[in-house]
Amino acid sequence: MASSLGPTAAMAEVGVAAAVVAPHHPPPPLPPSQPAVWAVTAANATALLRRWAAAGAAATPTVVPTVPQHAAPVLPAAPPAVKDDEVAVCVLCGAPAPTPALSPLEISAAALRCSPLAPPPPEATGGCGAHAPTATDPACVAAAAAGGGGVTAVAVAGVKRPRAVPPAIIPGVRGTLSAHAAAAFAPGAAAAGSKDAACEHGRRRRRCKECGGTGICEHGRERYSCKECGGGGVCEHGRRRRSCKDCGGSGICEHGRMRSRCKECGGGGVCEHGRVRSRCKECGGGTICKHDRRRYDCKECGGGSICMHGRARHRCKECGGSSICQHGRVRGQCKDCGGRSICEHGRLRRYCKECDGVDICKHGRLRYYCKECGGAGICKHGRRRHECKGCGGAGICEHGRPKRRCAECGGAGICEHGGLRRYCKVCRGAGICEHGRRRHECKECGGAGICEHGRRRTYCKECGGAAICAHGRAQYGCKDCGGAGICEHGCRRRYCKSCAGAAMCEHGRRRSYCKACGGAGICEHGRRRSDCAECAGAGICEHGRRRRRCNVCGGAGTCAAAAAATADC
């Protein structure tokens, strides 16, 4: 049986047999200064027993037998680990030990305490911190029954058991933790295993696309908020459930707005300037980039909403943007689709004066382009910022013209007929009224460009039109002011044949007065419309003559007018 227990158990058997003590000579007690010693293996126990036996023989003059005296009991650190296929046996006689009601550690410890040869130790505590029981404990009785009659069994250390990992103490956690629990709280454990821990990209790991988070679906969105995946956060109306008014979402306040962005409710997302805090430049909102734009919409920053064509992705036709309707327009601004941004007057609601659009200032202009209101779209030169050459506006092309209106650059405002699409009669541009004129310059339509004197507001001297220079002429066509409409030949640029002005046709005439080209200035009678008496042209006075040549009216082309001009000089 000893061979089945291995060499360690055999050494323990030899050591115990040598440690049987004669009843005549009890061993001397341990010095008071020497603490209790725990033996880990059988070899250690045997060495301690021999050392104590030699010390006792030297101190006692009495002759002792050859067999060494019994030394002080040495308690093992722990009972030997007995596997399922092994049987516990006594190391003295080899008899199988009965199965006691107590654990083997309690039986062996109680046997030593109840032995008459061992001095009773004073209230010693074991490795587990429990006080030793007395001889009247039930453990002593069980140990006596297990040890046999007449022979005192001495507990020795058997096979070395695995050491237990010392309990870990984690700051911020009460008590001690096991090795498994301590590993969960160890530094870096959260980053390595926890799903909600921050990853190396500064996001929650389960919501990070780069890390392949479990919360990201195959469409690159959060699975909970993905319509195609049928996420639980999407309601039957195709919106986020908590932000849906029809579903009565928890994020909607009593005013029908997002609760966090409602000023009246004092939403936490509204800053002291009355804006959404994350989008406020003065507050340094987190969504504002270094270019003073929303980072999500900034091309230079590579915003997420900018597609490969340099446009807002949801408004890009080539990318199939979600905001593009079947008519090729922005869905919210499409009249045919009944866009919600279209008012009852057929205009964009925010730009409609009759509807008191939010972008219309108290002067009846677009607030963004109003000088009196200090609109953000007006530069220091008093022009629209994106169309100002001095400011290097983004709307100015390499030819020095507004990019949208430059035919060479293929501007979006140029139609197939070579004119501005907005003012093209053939294309039925939006700027052309029912009378065939530019709507804002039409007297019958009450165009905004017509002043109280019946003239174009910008060219009216009495109104101090912005297009009138200090010489009392149209600034664009004033030679003294170096107007942009004057070419290097001293002629109006658009009417100069040498410069191939835009108003000159292929026949070398003004396009509007060319019969061959069907100029707009030629009436049905084959005359200039303004000089046709039958058409009541504007150049015909009440006397039926050309106004500039009528002596009664003092026309500018008469001799009297020429003589008066010569006299003034």
User: How do the helices and strands follow one another from N- to C-terminus?
Assistant: HHHHHHHH
How many strands, which pairing sense, and closed or not: the largest β-sheet?
none
User: How large is the count of helical segments?
Assistant: 8
Determine the fraction of residues in helical runs and give it as a percent range.
Answer: 10-25%
Number of strands: 0
Q: What gross morphology would you assign?
A: elongated
- Average pLDDT figure: 73
- Termini Cα gap: 145 Å
- Strand fraction equals under 5%
Account of the 3D structure:
The protein has 569 residues and is low in regular secondary structure. Helices cover 14% and strands 0% of the residues. It is built from 8 helices and no strands. The longest helix has 18 residues, at 42-59. Mean pLDDT is 73; it is low at 1-25, 63-92, 114-160 and 162-192.
